[in-house]
Structure formats: structure tokens, C-alpha cells
Amino acid sequence: MDTLIRRIFRSAMTALPKGVKTAWWLIKITVPVSFAVMLLDFFGALNYIAGYTGPVFNLIGLPGVSAVVFITSIFTNIYSVVAILAMLGLPLREGTILATMCLISHGFLIESAVMKRTGSSVTRMILVRLSGSFLAAWMLNLVMPGEMSGEMHGIIAAQTDFSLALMHWLKSISATVIKILILVNLLLIFQQIMEEFGWIALINKPLRPLMKLFGLPQSTTLSWVVANLIGLAYGSAIMIDQKEKGKMSSKDADLLNHHVAVSHSQLEDPLLFITLGYTLHWLIWPRILMAVAAVWMRRAGIKYQTEIRRKVADSFQVKA
User: Fold this and answer.
1) Domain boundaries, the chain
2) Distance between CA atoms of residues 316 and 223, nearest Å
3) Are 97 and 57 in contact (CB under 8 A)?
4) For 215, which of 41, 96, 176, 318 is 20 to 30 Å away at the CA?
């Protein structure tokens, strides 16, 4: 028993410095980004942008006000989306399509930084998520029963008292910072304990066929599980640690990012929308399909680039 406790304690002490470092990195990104978004929202910049993007949403069966929700999602998180949708009262069909888009495209600034840290191009990740959102919406608009509602929905009025907006932000960001500190450290401690006792192999083996179907290397299994259970931002601690330890190469991490950029937090985030009456399966399977497609397209792109480089190299050798 003493040996068991010592091994757990040693694992915790090994993980804590890395946990604090990773948490601090996330907090340094999250706090200023969150404050900037609060200012944009308060001064009506998000609504202004949405006024120009609204017509695009009509093409995929959504009212123009959807642009406000989607843009808010890009700069904030799913909790904000749920709050806005609850106030807008969109019909279930339109709300579900919009929720799926937001589940794919949210928290760009923070989550893009995470994916860049693990080896992916920020530009590519943003394009993957945006295209995935609109493709998923287009697909759902085709297959979901019902038609677009003709009812107009107003844009929520902006908060007029800056002090109230600031207090609301302080309360929200304080909770987020505490959550980051606790979750990131607990995750890394748990990962270290799993490594200490050899439990990671027990996860890898049963998921091997699924990873193969998804086009993901086996080295990404643990990070994939974490990202799908608790999300990309909080799960970044594991992803970064796996890469820095050399257990996941940059190429493997990039493939993983193409998947989790589109499909992550499949447990908590979709469940939030149940409170609005949305059906769970519509919020899950489109993201998985888009994620699988993104990975295999990335693989095809890498293969094509390799072939081109090989042909160019061969042509130079022939000339020489």
C-alpha cells in the first residue's frame, strides 16, 4: 500500500509543474481574448459584422440573426451560444442546425493557439472548421425533416451599462480561470498515473480499429479520448504533453488536430443543448462525419504533396 501511495504521489509531483505551466499558458491567452470579445460585444461590433453575413445563412436554411450567434460562437464558447439561443427562441430545426455549426466553430482564438502549439497551421485549422460548419449545416438542411421558418427573430439588445457588463465578465472569467487551473492539473496528474501503472496501453488496444477507421495514428488515441470527453481547450494539456514527450509526432498531432478541430467535446457540449429541446444525435454524427472527412482529405493532400516532391526531385536527377 505504501508503494502504491508513493507511486501516486510521485506521479502527482511530476505532473504538477507541467500542469501549472500549461494552465498559465492557457490563462494568458484566455483572459485578454475574453476581455476583447466582451468589448466587441458591448460596443455592437459583433452585431455590425453579422449584418453583412446574414444573407449567407439564408442559403443554408437559417434566418439572418443566426450570424450573430455564429460569430459570437467563434469568439467565445458554447455556453454563450446556449444562452443566446435560449433568448432567441429559434424553432428546433433551425436551432439544431445552428447549434451544430457552433459546436464545430467556437473558441477560435484560444483553440487555434492550442492547435498551433501542437503543430498545425492556424489558417488551415480555421478553414477546416468554417468549411466543416457550413457543410454540416448544408447537409442537415437537406436531411432534417421540416422547412425553414418564415418567422423573424430580433437581435438581442446590447448591454447599455458598461459596469454591469464588466462585472459579468469578471465573474465569468474568474470561474474559467479556476476551472483551467483545476482541470489542467488534474488531467496531467491522471495521465502521469496512467503512465506510471501502464494503463494507457489498455485504452489504445480496444480503440485501435476506430482510430484506423478515422485515419488517426495509434499515438493520438489518448489525446483523442481526452479531447472528446472534456474538449479541446482543457484537453490541450494532454495533447501538448504527449507531443513534448515525443509520444506523438508533429505529423500525427496535425492529423489529430484536423479531427478534433471539427469534432470534440462530444459529451458535455451537446448535452447543453438538450435544455433547449434539441435532439442529441443531430448534434453528434454530422461532426464525426466532417472530422473523418477532414482527416482523410489531409492524408490525401500529404500523399499528393509527397508525390509531387518526388517527381520534381526525380526530374532534377534526370537533368543532372
Assistant:
1) 2-319
2) 41
3) no
4) 96
